[in-house]
User: What shape does this take?
Amino acid sequence: MHLWSIESNHQHLDGGAMFGNAARAVWAKWVTPDELNRVLLATRCLLAENIDGKTVLFETGVGAFLEPKLSDRYGVVEKEHMLLRSLQQRGYSHEDIDAVVLSHLHFDHAGGLLAAYREGAEPSLLFPNARYIVGETHWQRACRPHPRDRASFIPFLPELLEKSRRLELVTGDHSPCLGESTRFSFSDGHTPGLMHAEIGGDNGVVFCSDLIPGRPWVHLPVTMGYDRFPERLIDEKKDFLADKLERGVRLFFNHDPDCALADVQRDEKGRFSAVNPQPAVEGIAIE
Ligand SMILES: [Zn+2]
Assistant: This one.
């Protein structure tokens, strides 16, 4: 099996919201904000070739489904559907994908499932031949969001996924579609039932999703304003990082614009950091 990082659309989001209760003077040393106090974020995806003979896309990024007014409000950088272009550069159409794995259904992770916005056109799903793989616990939240996180979801998406008859809900470590090669674990601090796909077991790669959006968030106390339960997230992140360090599993980041993959390190004081940053994943082989 081979893994490739696949870029979807970038976003400019408020730096304060991305770094929770960290002071601006601190986070601005890690990421330089623009004149509107926004930071640049990737919404990166991961493509796996030949997982049990299947071509699997992990996540879809924000995509280009937002109407122009909302696209501007959420700081989406590119107007075209970058995921489709990036897949094409790897030689794939969205029709070639056998499964799309979604860590959660926040719009900056699942928006790329949808065709690009066209005035007057009904929203429609791409990936007509794929199973859409979503964690069962998170699915319940996406169908019935809390007022606090409702704006993070795409209101019409659950119905479209259900109607496709290709939705597969994951309740345990593995999904029927992907078999033993992909192991799932879950965390609740960012959103209930956030699903982390680990590909290749020990010395493999894990999709951190919004538990750890990029290198600055590897530092345990750093959380996002969007996280539903920040203290729980920190506890979950500590266990997650200790486990990945012990088993040599590399971290895949979807929001870090300059780093797709890194290793975990822990210093003598027990502080975690990301080392050996890779800007892209280019065909690494996983057993
Ligand atoms: Zn999220």
